[in-house]
Write a structure and sequence with these properties.
Distance between the termini: 29 Å
Structural class: alpha+beta
Helix content: 25-40%
Number of helices: 4
Amino acid sequence: MSQLTPARHFTDSHVHGHTLDLLITSDEQVLTMLPVDPPLLLDHSFVVADCDCTPPSTTSTSYRQVRNWRVLDVDAFAADLQSSLLITTPAEDIETGVDCYNSTQRSLLDKHAPVELKRVTTRSSSARLYYRECHNVNQEIRASVSLTTHR
């Protein structure tokens, strides 16, 4: 909420005039407060407001390097691995063996499942952020109301 310029919409929804129902929106938010009926069963009224609450969404495009594993021919990969230097010429020490393993793996994968550049479009909505933030504010309000009413 600190990122918004908040506007408060108060309603007298309690028989003693306390502000128990409070709507906080950005100052650009168009809000239509509907008439508040007098309390029926409890000492609170039912408050109804009409607003357009469509959260802004953002779209971003990025590129990612991926391998298409579906095109990998396992038999051809295994045959090339059997004829590679990794198998035909064993390494004399561990460091050489690891280097040979890494270079063989990279070259065989590049041959049998080449890296492709894929465009990834991400559509994010801030609805989850709004929901989480509203939920946390509601929890704080409920806690403070219960503290003040139980004293």
